[in-house]
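Module 6 notes. Inverse folding takes a fixed backbone as the condition and produces residue identities as the prediction. Think of it as a translation problem where the source language is geometry and the target language is the twenty amino acids. Below is one complete input and output pair. Work through it position by position during the lab.
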């Protein structure tokens, strides 16, 4: 069930200059004025500034068949009786010819309101005593804001009940600091799920020709607008600003009268917010481009075509564009924003997003900026290497570097296997073929003679003998280590089939086999295993692999030099390793925010330094 709550500042009762002759108490003569309320045709006979606003709330609730449950009145000591903790000694009131005496001004007001609006008889009137000391004004305000907020929340019940609380605030009269205090209290209550329904102001012929009640709820909504802009600039969250405009992203509709251009901005903000919060890496750059375009369109709307809410949002547009800075700049290449977006996430404290984006995007930066990239002859091998986890070939090239080497080997085998087959079986050697092709041809040509005259083995060219020995070594592996020699191989009834099987399939298709190294004309090398649980050992293996791919087998190149390249790869390797631990919440994950920021800063710094070096080299 809804709980309806009113908050107001109780203004002192207007009293005559001289005290009452009989009692010596202050005396007040009720002189009523007509107030136009938001509902009903009959004017309200108001005397005190707080009467018409409260009557207005009671009448509004009556229309919904609801009532006011509690009224929290901010009261100075001069208006409360000593029994309630105040200093008021009593009040004499003359009203419609009747003379009455009350213990305090506050109690007179409560009695009068219950008489004018009988629905208030069951309402609890709760005085909140205001303390005011000039030397500690700020501390007093903060303390009383906290106390009033705590009291309202406690009276409402537990957290589950707060969402059913509806606040009606009367901001008429009172010192300015009291209005600020009430506004602060309402901000707290809204944050806890309570809903501010009305902010009522009783106007004494200032804004209109008659005494009238106004709902100025929109003034507190401005806080939500500002908070929404701050949330978007600080964290990329659009929810609060969408709530302010009552904007529905699915339908593109708004509960407030705003231009289509502003709806476009809200739609773009929503799209970017989704992308950055969920960390949809592929959607972030285009979402920023769309936001930049939407803001430009909104800024181009003529002033006369802007709605009031457009103009309100306009006051924040500079803050938003300044907050995103270069991220909203025009670019034909979305990848050029990668480093800027990562840096923005770091600055905003979105470290999980920053680590994810850096893990996926830094490899792209390495390739595009010449830190390390495939040699042109083998570029197709790298470009074909994509998988579900790494849909971009540049990511896969950096993260799974050995897959690139394996792809080159496969390309080599696929290219040369039919050529080697023709050479071995038919003696065909294409012009310009690698020397190994000629060796295959010689083996095929000498095999029949060797079968008949094994002693001729001593006269075989070294490259042909090496092939025979390679076949023997492979047969030994398959025969549980039983030693095989070339003469024994030649005497075997299936020798020719064995030779073809091993040289054209078994050996040729193995990873890092000597045949491929000879076909590619590169020095044979062995890549170390990187499967250790120790991060430093894995890095040493990774660094060795990249160094050999650069200098030994020469399948990658760099524009910045080996050491800057390795520094970039090292910074990225450790960032990615720690990111995986953070994501999987492993027991080894002991990094704090500062260490994560250092890892991110380091990889960006190394990239920047190496990229500068690349430009100088070019």
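Target side of the pair, the amino acids:
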């Amino acid at each position: 069930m809804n709980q309806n709550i009113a908050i107001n500042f109780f203004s002192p009762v207007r009293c005559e200059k001289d005290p009452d002759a009989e009692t010596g108490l202050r005396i007040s003569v009720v002189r009523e004025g007509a107030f136009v309320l938001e509902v009903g045709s009959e004017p309200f006979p108001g005397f005190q500034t707080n009467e018409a606003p409260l009557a207005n709330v009671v009448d509004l609730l009556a229309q919904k068949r609801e009532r006011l449950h509690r009224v929290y009145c901010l009261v100075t000591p001069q208006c409360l009786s000593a029994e309630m903790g105040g200093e008021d000694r009593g009040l004499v009131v003359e009203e419609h010819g009747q003379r009455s005496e009350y213990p305090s001004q506050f109690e007179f007001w409560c009695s009068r309101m219950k008489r004018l609006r009988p629905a208030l008889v069951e309402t609890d009137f709760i005085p909140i005593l205001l303390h005011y000391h000039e030397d500690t004004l700020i501390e007093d305000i903060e303390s009383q804001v906290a106390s009033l907020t705590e009291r309202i929340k406690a009276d409402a019940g537990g957290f589950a009940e707060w969402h059913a609380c509806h606040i009606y605030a009367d901001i008429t009269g009172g010192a300015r600091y009291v209005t600020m205090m009430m506004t602060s209290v309402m901000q707290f209550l809204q944050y806890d799920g309570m809903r501010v329904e009305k902010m009522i102001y009783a106007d004494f012929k200032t804004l209109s020709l008659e005494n009238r009640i106004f709902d100025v709820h929109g003034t507190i909504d401005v806080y939500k607008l500002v908070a929404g802009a701050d949330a978007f600039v600080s964290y990329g969250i659009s929810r609060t600003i969408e709530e302010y405009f009552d904007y529905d992203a699915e339908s593109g509709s708004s509960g407030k009268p705003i231009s289509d251009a502003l709806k476009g901005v809200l739609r773009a903000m929503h799209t970017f917010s989704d992308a950055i919060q969920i960390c949809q890496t592929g959607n972030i750059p285009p979402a920023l481009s769309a936001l930049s375009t939407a803001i430009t369109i909104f800024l181009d709307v003529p002033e006369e075509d802007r709605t009031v809410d457009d103009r309100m949002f306009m006051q924040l547009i500079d803050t938003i564009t300044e907050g995103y800075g270069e991220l909203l700049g025009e670019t034909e290449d979305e990848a050029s924003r990668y480093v800027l977006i990562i840096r923005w996430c770091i600055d905003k404290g979105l470290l999980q997003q920053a680590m994810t984006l850096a893990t996926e995007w830094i490899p792209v930066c390495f390739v595009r900026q010449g830190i390390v990239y495939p040699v042109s002859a083998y570029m197709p091998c790298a470009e074909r290497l994509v998988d579900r986890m790494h849909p971009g070939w540049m990511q896969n090239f950096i993260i799974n570097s050995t897959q690139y080497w394996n792809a080159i080997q496969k390309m080599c085998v696929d290219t040369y296997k039919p050529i080697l087959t023709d050479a071995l079986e038919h003696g065909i050697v294409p012009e310009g073929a690698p020397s190994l092709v000629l060796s295959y041809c010689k083996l095929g040509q000498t095999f029949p003679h060797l079968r008949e005259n094994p002693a001729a083995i001593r006269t075989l060219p070294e490259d042909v003998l090496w092939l025979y020995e390679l076949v023997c070594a492979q047969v030994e592996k398959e025969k549980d280590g039983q030693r095989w020699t070339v003469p024994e191989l030649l005497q075997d009834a299936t020798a020719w089939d064995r030779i073809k099987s091993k040289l054209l399939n078994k050996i040729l298709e193995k990873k890092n086999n000597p045949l491929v190294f000879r076909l590619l004309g590169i020095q044979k090398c062995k890549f170390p295993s990187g499967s250790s649980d120790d991060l430093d050992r894995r890095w040493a293996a990774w660094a060795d692999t990249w160094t050999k791919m650069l200098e030994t087998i020469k399948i990658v190149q760099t524009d910045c030099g080996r050491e800057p390249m390795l520094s970039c790869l090292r910074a990225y390797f450790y960032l990615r390793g720690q990111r995986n631990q953070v994501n999987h919440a492993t027991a080894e994950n002991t990094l704090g925010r500062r260490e994560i920021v250092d890892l991110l800063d380091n990889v960006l710094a190394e990239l920047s330094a190496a990229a500068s070096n690349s430009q100088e080299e070019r």
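Reference fact for the lab report: The chain has a mean pLDDT of 88.
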